[in-house]
Amino acid sequence: MMQITEGSHAVADAVRLCRPQVIAAYPITPQTHIVEALADMVADCELDAEYLTVDNELSALSACIGASAAGSRTYSATTSQGLALMFEVCFNAAGMRLPIVMSIANRALGAPLSIWNDQQDSISLRDSGWLQFYAEDNQEATDLHYLAYRVAEDHSVLLPAFVCFDGFILSHTYEPIDTLSQEDIDRFLPKFSPYERLDAADPISFGMYATPEYYLEFRYEMDRALKESKAIIEKRGKEFGQMFGRDYSAMVEGYRLEDADTAIVAMGSICGTTKDAIDEMREEGKKVGLLKIRVFRPFPTEDLARALAHVQRVAVLDKNISLGAKGAVALEVKDALYGSGIPVKGYVIGLGGRDVRKKDIKAIVGLIGKGQGDMFYGLRTEVL
Amino acid sequence: MRELRIHGRGGQGSVTAAELIAVAAFEGGVFAQAFPAFGVERRGAPVQAFVRFDNKIIRKRSQVYEPDYIIVQDSTLIKDVNVFQGVKKGGIVIVNTEKVPDFKVPDGVKLITIDATTIALKTIGLPITNTSLMGAFAAASGEIKFSALENALNHRFPKELAIKNIEAARQAYAKVKEVS
Lengths: 384, 180
Hints:
The complex is a heterodimer.
Chain A: E1 2-6, H1 7-17, E2 22-25, H2 33-43, E3 50-53, H3 57-69, E4 74-78, H4 80-85, H5 87-95, E5 101-106, H6 120-123, E6 131-134, H7 138-152, E7 161-166, E8 174-178, H8 182-188, H9 215-244, E9 252-255, E10 262-266, H10 270-283, E11 288-293, E12 295-297, H11 301-308, E13 313-318, H12 328-336, E14 344-348, H13 358-369, E15 375-376
Chain B: E1 2-9, H1 14-27, E2 31-36, E3 46-54, E4 69-72, E5 92-96, E6 110-114, H2 116-123, H3 130-141, H4 146-156, H5 159-179
Parallel strand pairs in B: 1-4, 4-5, 5-6
Antiparallel strand pairs in B: 1-3, 2-3
Helix pairs in contact in B: 1-3, 1-4, 2-3, 2-5, 3-5, 4-5
């Protein structure tokens, strides 16, 4: 059913349909309306879950770790400094192979204090072992939660997942989305069946000590599981498409890319504005296309290389910066296209809520045409 | 695509106005998108909110720079903020003021003034002008039907408050219909 609703509320509703058994969240800023809406649902008996209001984000994810290890489907949401405070336990959740799903309404990291959007928060946890999905719009932001649980809980994966959607730009936006019913989601997402769980009658330990003889192998197994999750994303994403008409089997998605000589690579809500800019450039005879990255971890290296094999140049938009190096997406794309001879340039854009307009996308296409890139785009040099 | 930009001050309900206009437009069968300009959230500070209307899915996420419609909730903003910036020729500007306008809108732009504060004080008992201006917008633009606005208000507010706000919207709607 098509409904017009706010991004955060739409996500909360999607989470409700996933039937989480334990939700733990820090309800104070930086937080979104998601956990507020879920607290209402639990209080109104619309959702049968244990709702834990904790003292900070570190505790929120720690509580999720305990609950997940005990065999519950668990959920949390955060953003920005809240996610930064979880840094330590993010690695623990992944290392203990607990399929927790967390929504990240992407926002900038301080200092300086910024409440606005970019993707620095989740990108900064790219090495933690969590799957990372990025939504272009609120339809994807909701659907990717169903997919995230389905994939994370698969016994060949057993890793936690972030569902990232741009803070404010999506989280605070009202737009129509096709909402699914409890029956729909019950058909797609079976009950959580833990591979191992804490049980007083049959005690085991999670996240114990690994000596140098074992640690390397633990990390290898995590890396292997994350890489092999591509096949599960493909399978479950296709299944979702067959059930509800929106196919998420592809981790990268082209837009007017087939005959493009210039490709833009981007992630998140910036893809929408980019598509509109591409339509206008196409009318001017410019052969520009988009490759949207929906899954950043595992990184779809081969899919991306295949999708871009025919283009003459690639412009990568990054709403993050690995300071002292480049944007994280640009680094991945350069790696994927290494040896192909296709020039790749990165553009750091839209940090800390700087608005990105169609004219900016067009300007970047102009810059890469002249071979200029690997730069911050739109710097106000007068304040430097 | 048509675009609306709402200027107000924190606490005047500009964001709610944008949301409810989008909800009403969607009921009328068009795609709508509403979002705030994310500024410093405090009472009295200048704020903006935006709505887009289109017959197809709206993908654009940037703020609104060249609006077809502008609503100004507080005419004291006009000297501080360039509220009319970028308005399209043939566009409509709705300003809440009880005075004869001492400002000019760009050439080719239609100005509608309405004393939404007085309407709000009479109907709601508080100087919260967003619902009156939603009514004025419905009448001036034709983007939303009054009945859809009524449904959106009924859905958002508890019954008693909804009745008062609908009355505010109705009075402003009638006033704008009368002058245009």
